[in-house]
Amino acid sequence: MALPVADQPREQRAALMHLELEDAALRLFEERGFGAVTVEDIASAAHISVRTFYRYFPAKEDVLQVRIERRADALRAALAQRPADEPPLHSLRVALAEVVAVEDADLVRRWVAVVAATPNVMRGVLGGIQLKSHPVMAEFFGARLGLPGDSMIPTMLAAAAGGVIQAVQTQWFLLGGDLTTRMSEAIAVLEQGVGADWRIPPAAHVDAFLKDEKNVSDGRAHARGAGGDGRPVR
User: Fold this and answer.
1) CA 126 to chain centre
2) Domain boundaries, the chain
3) CATH code reported for the domain at 63-193
4) Over the stretch 20-31, which tens digit does the pLDDT of each residue have?
5) C-alpha angle 1/25/129, rounded to 5°?
6) What predicted TM-score, i.e. pTM, was given to this entire model?
């Protein structure tokens, strides 16, 4: 028999409380509309005090960030387990499928419904994805390609993958089906690649980009050993 939340270890207790509050909040947001739900309503539905709610979240908007943070953390852990010689986009496809497969599909669907129905929270949600999910992918791509995580190719790949993920979740929400399968199939399209010129092998495009990126990285390293204007520090 599972222990009551209060008897769980501290980190596990916090994770369980986040889940309970997210579930209660999403249910209320979907039933009444985001704007009509107060922190007091969420606390009451979760059988906690308002003071306890604020111990976990600064505001009701922050409840919508839990899913983003949870997926980002799970994706980081899953990517770390992929073989080092595996193509990066294939690693992302497999890792993402593993993460999505164990998510609560009903909660994900409810989360998408609330965000889609509430334009004034969209900016915060998209900002959360940009700040929490994209860097996980960019750092992974950078490590695999031998480039800084904030350089162009890793950030470009992360942005492309992030766009695919958002598009898939929207399609799944509207049309149904299995989210894990849809996600894997969509990332597979990105993995196969769409070249700007089909006469040039995709590898040639990548090699050219990598050469440019390494030149930029070398320039950064040189600049760090020089003054702000590029002249050697005396």
Assistant:
1) 10
2) 5-57, 63-193
3) 1.10.357.10
4) 999 999 999 999
5) 105
6) 0.78
